[in-house]
Amino acid sequence: MIGKARIHLYKPIQVAEILYRDRVARDIDLEDVETYRTQSRKWRDEVCMRILGSSSTSSARFQDNLFDPNATPPPVLVTLGKINRRYNGAVEAYIYEAFGQKHAQMSKWLDYVRHSDRTSFKLQNFIAGFRRDPGLARSVDKIFEIVVYALFSTLLEVLEVKVGVKIEKIENAILREFSDFTKKVLGLSEAMPETYQDAKVYRVGVTNAADRGLDMWANFGVAIQIKHLSLTPEMADDISNNISADRIIIVCKACEKDVLISVLRQFGGANKIQSVITEDELDVWYEKALLGKSATLIGDKVLERLENEITVEFPSTVEFDRFFKSRNYHQLPILDIWCD
User: Fold this and answer.
1) What is the pLDDT of residues 260-300, one digit of tens each?
2) Which of 41, 125, 177, 274 could form a disulfide with 247 if both were Cys (CB 3.0 to 4.6 A apart)?
3) What is the spatial distance between Cα 41 and Cα 222, in angstroms, rounded to a whole number?
4) Domain boundaries, the chain
5) DSSP string of 20-36, one letter each residue
């Protein structure tokens, strides 16, 4: 489970907190999943908020498959519980040690961004580092999302793009009757029938890959779905059917020319998919942003936003170190527990 988990390790942490509760409070029965099925999410989230600053936003159904037969069902937890109690929490420590190692690997790439400038940062090297590292490979899609956000949000800002909402017919009986609606929902009135604001994109938040959900949305009517995979017609169909938006932009790792033509022919226009952007195109845009004619206006902002988003998504290990030591995990024989 740890090897397959993303860097946040929400499910392994939930296991650790079940074992911690069993060892310390002793008010649950590991053989009876109902004594901890729902409560353990709260225990996990309390720890995650402390060491990550975030908690799982996955669906209840996805979270609950932690206890499926092919994951960590009660019999497995019973066995782990016995080992954990025998070694005073060493299984918990093993899980949190893995968490610490993954975040140490992430810190290396955060430092790469921090210490890069417009001439030294290479997008392909950055993304490839996550693909190559077994501990980070599961998080490459989240990094890909951050890469997209940093560029898109910066370009919209420096281009000074504005979006507006306007009531065409001010002399309208419906407008007068529903003036409270237009004021509260649209921010418009007869006196101010139109308004403009900066165009922006927003990241929806941390979600699990098994959840079908939106990655980014824009206040100018576009939904942005990001997949660090090669686009297929089946994937495009799934995105088109599961996202409620008039226009969708797909950002993906790659897309064969014939697939692109097929996707835009089948799902473009009235069928919602506005465009497909590949990693190669992102690389070209990053190079322009960092080294092009307007690099002095764009480059540093892109790198700063990239750093900020990574820092928010993958917090510092300082608080984790405090947590780890507060439970005395650093004093336990983590490796020896598997030798018996």
Assistant:
1) 888 877 776 556 888 999 999 999 999 999 999 999 999 99
2) 274
3) 33
4) 10-110+316-338, 164-197
5) HHHHHT--S-TT-GGGT
